[in-house]
Amino acid sequence: MNAIIITAAGGPDVLQIASRQDPSAGEYQVLIEVRAAGINRPDVLQRKGYYPAPPGASVDIPGLEVSGVIVALGSAVTRWEIGDKVCALIPGGGYAELVLADADVCLPIPSGLSFAEAAALPETIYTVYDNVFRRGGLKQGEHLLVHGGSGGIGSTAIQLAKASGAFVSTTAGNSDKCAYCKSLGADIVVDYKRQDFLSILRDQKVNVVLDSIGGDYFEKNIDLLMPDGRLVYINAVNGKNVAVDLMKVMQKRIVITGSTLRARDVTFKAQLTREIGAFVWPLIGASFKPQVYREFKLEDAAAAHEFMETGNFLGKLVLTI
Q: What is the per-residue DSSP string for 174-232?
């Protein structure tokens, strides 16, 4: 099979196409002929050498989500059949013509979606569902603040929160991105390059914050949150070390939490898959639509990474085969 490999830690040019041996399905795995693979920030971090693959995952083929057709089954797999069209969350190896996935971490491609749209679903939906609804406990009628609403995670969080009956505020970096967030259903959008989100939202009753920024956003998030608020971290691009006013945390009874998904075990991901299949999958095509901004061919992965690092896009980027 052909695959995109990371030849060394570095810029987009270190991504090169190479020939690799076709993988074989283990007892509880399916072999997927990949038609599309989502591109995510962790892929960029892995390429730069900052985010090593977990044990058992491909160390030099990036890619955390794919869509395609099942072409082989492990001996213990009974849920799927050869020819089924699925999308899957995987720990790595998605930038390839073939990839293995645990059978319990696959979902059927929703009716009416292209392979590219389906490939844009798993990583963001799993991340948002686990962090906003499970860890953050967002409920109908509560107020969610999402930082970075125009990206893959943000666009997913806005749509799913609105579908659950929440009020949604978000931050974005320019007028086009702000308009895009509004089009997805965000109630309040703050252009963080021109406005201070703390000043704009100070009188709002924010219950949950989903933050990937960190740094000086931390104290502002604490100030905004209502008593019994939940502050959920999924990244810290502006700094992981922050000063904490513990008295504010205690007085407001704020829960500070966060998670990463890639290294979680299959048992956890399988349970998450079942919940997402039951609660999120019925929304797709109605209350939720995958946001694919641009498609690139597999062999153009380096150009796709270069484009991703510009930040000049809305939603998701996808590789297609």
A: SHHHHHHHHHHT-SEEEETTTS-HHHHHTTS-EEEEEES--TTHHHHHHHHEEEEEEEE
